[in-house]
Design a protein that fits this description.
The protein is of the alpha/beta class and 383 residues long. It has eleven helices and 16 strands. The protein starts with a strand and ends with a strand.
Length: 383
């Protein structure tokens, strides 16, 4: 098994590392490409604040973070990256959005640790650092095997990331009966879920059974009929678990439609993707237990508390990721004899950060995620 290396930042051992090999007058410059203007400026500001927390934790005056505004625009992003290259920057955290990556192959001397969770890469000099679909499905696969679940279906909305989910399913070891693509329009959703769950057939089964009992000579038929009339359907669906590849209100619409068609989370496993501990899910008691993979919650809560204490506001999820990336970069620079180049990221090693355990492979950071369930008004760790 590969040795797990804890990022120095997160072990708070940064001050104990020998940095004599670094020229005392030579700065370790790390670029930061985030939106500081436009509708996404709050995301950028939160990332900058988390990076400052990380730098303060390291407490090494040789490290210099140079932020630049991307404006959430690929052309502006390219120009900002060129400005960073002109001052000697070879590693950049960011940009945030996948669309901002399209021109960065022009700067192949720079390594970008993009905060996107997309699986696809525009160039070999870009490492996608977000919690991608493959990492999430690996955790779901582990949960399915632990619970000996035999029949799993996926419900994926007809939106931009549907192909990413399809590819991740294909690359995973999950045995999937079917990946159903549904229209996210609520007016069409319920009808689609009815078809997937064979609702009309099961409803007809109920009506037929009531008629059969009414015509029968069974002595207890009145009691049986009374019990059946309290139900909407008769008969089960052909799956044991359903993975809903959705978020926010759209996720809730899907779970509500499943309940409407007599599919309940106490009988079938309701699983979804990383929800970043969305507290609104705690109120949806009828759809619990609901399972999902995610980062380490204890570390996430600790980071959020530290961030709030410093800035009197809560961070976004990308801030949590960027905090880890500062520690990762610092660790790799020191392990590479303070030489900053692409080879730093080529060695296959497991790291342990705030988010959890991860490795850099195929120009992606793949996370080994924890698993949680929403139940009884709290997030409970499964593994």
């Amino acid at each position: 098994m590969k040795k797990i290396i804890k990022i120095i930042l997160l072990l708070t051992l940064a001050l104990s590392i020998n940095i004599e090999n670094v020229n005392a007058n030579e700065k370790i410059r790390v670029g930061l490409l985030v939106p500081l203007t436009g509708e996404n400026f709050e995301i950028g500001e939160s990332i900058i604040k988390s990076v400052r927390l990380a730098i303060n934790k390291i407490n090494n005056p040789l490290i210099e973070i140079i932020p630049k505004d991307t404006g959430s625009n690929p052309e502006i992003t390219l120009e900002a990256a060129k400005e960073l290259a002109n001052v000697g920057v070879k590693i950049i955290i960011g940009p945030v959005f996948n669309e901002s990556l399209i021109y960065l192959d022009k700067l192949n001397e720079i390594t970008f640790l993009a905060l996107t969770n997309k699986n696809n890469n525009f160039s070999k000099n870009i490492i996608n650092a977000g919690i991608n679909a493959t990492s999430q499905l690996n955790a779901i696969d582990k949960f399915i095997k632990l619970n000996k679940i035999e029949k799993t279906i996926f419900l994926t909305p007809d939106v931009s990331f549907k192909n990413e989910i399809k590819e991740a399913i294909s690359n995973s070891k999950i045995k999937v009966l079917e990946n159903y693509i549904y229209d996210a329009d609520p007016t069409k959703l319920t009808q689609q879920i009815e078809k997937i769950t064979r609702y009309e057939v099961r409803k007809q089964n109920l009506e037929d059974e009531i008629v059969r009992l009414e015509k029968s000579d069974q002595s207890n038929k009145e009691r049986l009929i009374e019990g059946l009339k309290k139900r909407d359907t008769l008969g089960s669906v052909n799956f044991d678990s359903v993975v809903i590849s959705d978020f926010d209100e759209s996720l809730k619409s899907v779970t509500t439609s499943l309940l409407y068609t007599d599919v309940f989370p106490k009988e079938k496993y309701f699983i979804t993707l990383n929800q970043w501990f969305d507290e609104s899910l705690l109120k949806e008691t009828s759809t619990q237990p609901l399972y999902f993979p995610s980062a380490n919650k204890s570390n996430y809560d600790e980071f959020s508390s530290e961030y709030y204490e410093k800035y009197n506001q809560y961070p976004n999820e990308l801030s949590f990721l960027s905090y880890d990336l500062v520690g990762l970069i610092y660790y790799l620079i020191l392990q590479n004899n303070s030489i900053i180049n692409k080879n730093m990221f080529s060695k296959k090693t497991l790291f342990k950060g705030k988010v959890g355990i991860f490795e850099i492979k195929d120009n992606k950071i793949n996370h080994i995620l924890n698993f949680y369930k929403v139940e009884d008004g709290e997030f409970k760790k499964v593994f």
